[in-house]
Design brief:
Blueprint (H helix, E strand, L loop, with lengths): L7 E5 L4 H12 L3 E6 L2 H14 L2 E6 L5 H15 L4 E4 L16 H28 L2 E5 L14 H18 L6 E6 L32 H13 L4 E3 L2 H12 L1 H13 L1
Parallel strand pairs: 1-2, 1-4, 2-3, 4-5, 5-6, 6-7
Helix pairs in contact: 1-2, 1-6, 3-4, 4-5, 7-8
Length: 265
């Protein structure tokens, strides 16, 4: 296992949830952090805490759906630390809508732009520096990046695209020294479902029942850091997720029925 002491790490989606907890735990190891998210005030609060925990840190407000802002994130990180050792593509958001409910595709397009293209933009601009440092790329996907859902809301599509892209990129980079770790969490209790977009672009406004009893974000962050430290290929975080992947190989229709029932809850 490799330490993150003085490791220059970019974390997107760092103002809350999983990204926030990753930032705190890496700060405790003495990492050099570059934190990105849209909420500048919350991002600065996280940065201040990281500084108190022992890490170097800069906060760079970033909308990852804008490739010029992603380029700015990379450039300011290199300007500050002189290099990039680890890129953690964590930014993302969910949707709480059925495809047939969408009067237009603006919400669908937005989730693809943030969840998928945001990780592509950041990786594109960071890759030359990661190749110099034999660095790491960590992609926080979702179990929905491996399993279908009962709704074609765009979230699963964005995570499937993310999964395939980073699996292929791993192959492409296999002789460069850059490693790619893909993370497949199941439900994590971050409150993110309350911010899920409805078909009209408004927010859901309450936490989904699926977050009740779900994995805590600090535990999720520990697992991600452990996988990144060991340069693992991928981790599927829960037994339920692993079982679902196995069952779908032999009984896909059964898995579809289970997923439909869970979605309807």
């Amino acid at each position: 296992m490799e330490s993150f002491s003085e490791n220059a790490v970019i974390i997107t989606g760092a103002s809350s949830g999983i990204g926030e907890q990753i930032a705190y735990k890496l700060a405790e190891q003495g990492a050099w952090l570059s934190l990105a998210a849209r909420n500048a005030d919350k991002l600065q609060e996280v940065a201040n805490t990281c500084s108190h925990l022992g890490g170097k840190v800069i906060a760079i407000p970033t909308d990852v759906s804008d490739k010029s802002q992603c380029r700015n994130l990379i450039e300011l990180t290199v300007e500050k630390y002189g290099r990039i050792d680890t890129l953690i593509n964590n930014a993302g958001f969910p949707v709480a809508s059925k495809f047939i409910e969408m009067n237009d595709l603006s919400v669908f397009e937005k989730i693809i732009q943030v969840n998928f293209m945001g990780s592509v933009y950041c990786t594109h601009y960071a890759l030359p520096f990661l190749m110099k440092s034999n660095g790491r790329i960590v992609a926080v996907s979702s179990i929905r990046g491996r399993l279908p859902s009962a709704t074609a809301d765009g979230y699963g599509a964005s995570k499937h695209a993310m999964s395939e892209f980073f699996q292929s990129l791993r192959n492409e980079l296999s002789e460069t020294g850059v490693t790619v770790t893909i993370i497949y969490p199941n439900w994590v209790s971050t409150g993110i479902t309350s911010r899920a977009l409805l078909a009209d672009g408004s927010r859901k406004g309450f936490v989904s029942v699926h977050e009740n009893g779900a994995m805590q974000p600090d535990k999720c962050a520990k697992l991600i850091i452990k996988a990144a430290s060991g340069r693992k290929r991928e981790i599927v975080m829960t037994f339920e997720g692993k079982f679902g992947l196995w069952l779908r190989l032999i009984a896909p229709s059964v898995v579809d029925r289970i997923l439909k029932k869970k979605t309807d809850q």
